[in-house]
Amino acid sequence: VQRAVVRAAAMAGRWPDAAAGAVAICHRRESIDEEAIASLRDAVSALDEWAEFVAAFEAALVTAPAGDLQLARDLDLLCARWYRDECSDDAAAAAAAARAVARAPDHVGALTLLAELQRGTNDPAVVETLVALDRASSGTIEHLRAAAELACADGVGTARARELVAALHGKAAHLLHTGPGSEAAADAVRWA
Question: pTM, whole model, 2 decimals?
Answer without folding.
Answer: 0.85
